[in-house]
Amino acid sequence: RSLYPKQFHRLGGEESLLQATARRFSGAEGIREPLVICNEEHRFVVAEQLREAGISPAGIYLEPVPRNTAPAVAIAALALEKKYSQACLLVMPADHRIADPARFLAGIRVAGEAVDSGHLVTFGIQPTSPHTGYGYIRTGSPLSAGSFTAAEFVEKPDAETAAGYLKSGDYLWNSGMFLMAASDFIDQLQRYAPQILAACRDALDKAEQDLDFVRIDEQAFSACPSDSIDYAVMERSERVAVVPVDAGWSDIGSWAAVWDASQRDDAGNQLHGDVVVHECHDNLLISEDRMIAALGVSGLVVVDTGDVVLVAEKGASEDVKQLVDRLKAEGRDEVHAHRRVYRPWGAYQGVDRGDRFQVKRLIVKPGAKLSLQLHHKRSEHWVVVRGKARVTRGEEVFTLSEDESTYIPVETRHSLENPGPETLEIIEVQTGSYLGEDDIERFADRYGRC
After folding, report:
1. Angle between the N-to-C axes of helices 194-205 and 182-192, in degrees from 0 to 180, rounded to the nearest 10
2. Residue (of 398, 391, 389, 400) closest to 424 by Cα position
3. How far, in Å, are 86, 129, 255 from residue 283 at the CA level?
4. What angle do CA 416, 418, 422 make, to 5 degrees?
5. Bridge partner residues of 429 (DSSP)
């Protein structure tokens, strides 16, 4: 969903895809800490997940509006060129899986030779099937040991064409990962996409530091053309090389890919959460809270996130976008947020909702504090179920322990803080004529959201 997309989920591993990407080559010679470009809506999730993983980023740059991959990489190149005299970018989407990082690292070393000669290198994946969901790259003449000129970029083909590509042996899947000198990429942007470069340079010059983040200037960045790095530069430049790699790569582009990329039981089932099966084969069954019971089924994807249950044939799971488009057209909130919504202080999760009332579970991290705020159309009841809470209510400041509660009247300034070493959990009951998240007026916030 748009506020918590796949890169923040643990799909087939102990870490989220973002965390796995950020630490993939941690400690490898010549590779520094990651620089992150992300949507400003995701800033606190990114920062928290990196903190959980023990990763200190070189910077977290916030895009005020989406402008595709060419401007994102341009921002990174310009930022690093200022910091290092000879910066080299290893560009990696945060939502891919690489099963064998050591083999990919070997491919990076090969690509380094092509970069030294002024090439922009794209990594091509050795295809294992005539996949119609990927773009392809046709390899050209050899440049050095293990690298080739990129003769042609091809859009996602039909099944017959993809089968021909696989048979020819001349085509690789386009991974969307790159290695290049920042100065070389900026030079090619100047030649092929000068409007993007100018807008990004202006946006970065006017950027502002905000806590641990760099806020790219909204007005300047909004004027930037939206384009992919392939369309803007790679398909047009004569300095593009491709390095084939075979490292167990997947862009986790469907639920079938999640099933394929993770360990399964002897019956081919991949099960997550409270799942009970009998005589079932080759299924992906995921439950976030309640039990899934499956009997005598095969080849299914069932994902229960509490507020939505997805049921699909595994082979049709790539078509989920059509369902999402329909939900968007109908104005459904489910395409944006899960029941659990992450905030810099922790998270909240919807429990129940009806006419003039709403129940939430608040989870506040140790040492975290919600903003000083008030609501114009609702009052709130707080019950502590775990930990200790320091409450500000009007001019009062007091502490609540487990099984204690308080009431926050409408139009009353209030705040909630976790002063203890353990997670604070609160049940919040809201009542009033309007319960939307936009009924909030902030007066002080340590996370800069006023």
Report:
1. 120
2. 389
3. 49, 21, 10
4. 150
5. 359, 381
